[in-house]
Design brief:
The structure holds 2 protein chains of 2 kinds. By secondary structure, chain A is α+β, with helices and mostly antiparallel strands. Chain A is built from 3 helices and 2 strands, in the order αααββ. Chain B has one domain: Rossmann fold (3-Layer(aba) Sandwich). The chains are: A alpha+beta, B alpha/beta.
Chain lengths: 88, 264
């Protein structure tokens, strides 16, 4: 179904859009964290982490994921490259 | 707790059908032999009287009771069609602060002894009027529409109820359009339930009969011949503890009807 939609370049039905929007809106409302605050968090996280590890600031994403009534803050921070002498 | 169950109907957002739901559940429960008082807690913007077609018979209102101008019994308007259905009207010319939380609790305590159900129609919003309507509640019904703004406000109300230890709240999805759901252009019931993480007690389809009922002041629950009316009775039965399966959310399409006919 998804593939077919992509092939036809069709927009997802508006009910699905509503569902996705609500998912985000409710996550923000429940945590009392606005998208603006998320941006602030992101900038500060970038500042702190890059003091210690080289990261790709463009690729950093700070988002909410939520299960039923539980939400978590997820920071996805891509490293720029492996620093020399990095040990697995 | 003795006597009546106090059920508050609320929504957060205005215009989703709280008053329609309150009027119809009051009628449906009364038709099932329950002694019911429908209480309009929307002080200053009363409408439950109009929905029930009782607007011409109001002498006293809730504020008159609270301020001691009449006895509680005198303010109850008996329905002319169902002798065990009563309305406690809101004042039209006062503001919401005229009824304090403790006033509402006291009025409900007094009514509890003589009735089976007190259904409180909450005003929209989450301020004083909402808190007043909520204070005496044993149970809460949240009305929403399958749309982003209404679901968002319902979620806010659910959060407030949890914080206050009120509940368990149950959800009524009002004005669902099966055609739009089938096309994918309306949130479906499963999506709303999943987002709100709350129990469902009823789904009311969009139905023109609700509009004509509001015109004439005779709620659809009085008769059996509208979809919405039947669903209000299903909610009343669920409130009374009956297991009533949820009707198929989608009307069968042409092919499905054909297949079924062949299979039968």
């Amino acid at each position: 179904m998804k593939l077919l939609e992509k092939l036809r370049h069709r927009e997802p039905p508006s009910g699905e859009v509503a569902q996705e929007r609500l998912r985000l809106i409710l996550a923000h409302d429940r945590a009392s964290i606005s998208p603006g605050l998320l941006e602030v968090l992101k900038d500060e996280i970038i500042a702190v982490i890059s003091r210690h590890i080289p990261i790709d600031p463009e690729g950093v994403q700070v988002t909410f994921t939520e299960g039923p009534r539980v939400h978590r803050l997820v920071a996805d921070i891509p490293l720029r490259s492996r620093p020399r002498g990095w040990r697995e | 707790m003795m006597g009546a169950r106090v059920v508050t109907i609320t929504s957060g957002k205005g215009g989703v059908g709280k008053t329609t739901v309150t009027a119809n559940l009051s009628v449906a429960l009364a038709m099932r032999g329950q002694r019911v008082v429908a209480i309009d807690a929307d002080i200053g913007l009363r409408n439950l009287d109009v929905m029930l077609g009782l607007e011409n018979r109001i002498v006293y209102d809730l504020v008159d009771v609270v301020e001691g101008r009449c006895r509680l019994r005198q303010a109850l308007v008996r329905d002319k069609r169902l002798e065990n259905l009563f309305l406690l009207p809101a004042a039209q010319t006062r503001d919401k602060s005229a009824v304090r939380i403790e006033d509402m609790v006291r009025v409900c305590e007094e009514l509890r002894e003589s009735f089976d159900f007190l259904l409180i129609d909450s005003p929209a919003g989450i301020e004083h009027g909402f808190r007043t309507a909520l204070a005496p509640a044993d149970e809460v019904l949240i009305v929403t529409n399958p749309e982003v703004a209404a679901v968002r406000d319902a979620d806010r109300v659910i959060g407030l109820l949890e914080a206050e230890g009120k509940g368990p709240a149950r959800l009524i999805i009002n004005r669902l359009k099966p055609d739009l759901v089938r096309r994918g252009d309306m949130l479906d019931t499963a999506a709303v339930i999943e987002l709100l993480a709350i129990d469902l007690i009823g789904i009311i389809p969009e139905d023109e009969a609700v509009i004509t009922a509001a015109n004439t002041g005779r709620p659809v629950a009085f008769s059996d011949n509208s979809l919405a009316g039947r669903e209000f009775h299903n909610i009343a039965r669920r409130l009374l503890g009956e297991e009533v399966p949820f009707a198929p959310l989608k009307e069968p399409g042409f092919l499905e009807r054909l297949f079924r006919r062949i299979l039968e």
